[in-house]
């Protein structure tokens, strides 16, 4: 089966619509959420080709296929993350600036900043005294590197 578009997201469906269908999952590394063309396998062994026409990234909960009885949903493996919890706007600005200088993408979850684990960032956080913890956690979307130049 070739998937060329995302049908919907499971968060946009009524609970009754979800419960009446057999669910299969495609479990990806978060970095693969940005790949528009890939060969994957569901947790039930069904092979799929993904060839998305629109340029958006996949997200956790995206429904790749749905009929009256079945649905195939995107999920992700947990990532090794640094969960940074700045206490003040100054700490937030300091760490955001430092991460930006290192070109490290971050995501936000409530008051926490999430970055993929990096021992140099861990050392920096210790030096700056900014609270953090290392944690295995699923992210909802890929960490996106944004290109730019210093010129």
From TrEMBL:
Family, per entry: Belongs to the UreE family.
**NCBIfam families referenced in this protein's UniProt entry, alphabetically:** PRK13261.2-1 (NF009755)
Name under which the protein is recorded: Urease accessory protein UreE
Q: What does this protein do?
A: Involved in urease metallocenter assembly. Binds nickel. Probably functions as a nickel donor during metallocenter assembly.
The gene it comes from is: ureE
* Chief localisation class: cytoplasm
Question: Where does the record place it?
Answer: Cytoplasm
Keyword Chaperone (UniProt):
yes
Residue ranges annotated for the UreE urease accessory N-terminal domain, each copy included = 6-72
Arranged from A to Z, the UniProt key words for this protein are: Chaperone, Cytoplasm, Nickel
């Amino acid at each position: 089966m070739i998937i060329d578009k995302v049908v919907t997201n499971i968060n946009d469906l009524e609970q009754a619509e979800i419960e009446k269908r057999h669910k299969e999952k495609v479990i990806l590394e978060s970095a693969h959420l940005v790949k528009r063309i890939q060969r994957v396998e569901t947790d039930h062994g069904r092979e799929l080709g993904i060839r998305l026409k629109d340029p958006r990234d996949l997200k956790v909960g995206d429904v790749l296929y749905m009929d009256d009885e079945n649905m195939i949903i995107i999920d992700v493996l947990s990532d090794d993350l640094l969960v940074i919890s700045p206490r003040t706007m100054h700490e937030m600005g300091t760490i955001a600036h430092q991460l930006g200088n290192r070109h490290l993408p971050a995501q936000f979850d409530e008051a926490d900043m999430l970055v993929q684990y990096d021992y140099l960032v861990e050392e920096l956080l210790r030096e700056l005294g900014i609270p953090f913890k290392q944690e295995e956690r699923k992210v909802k979307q890929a960490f996106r590197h944004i290109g730019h130049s210093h010129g």
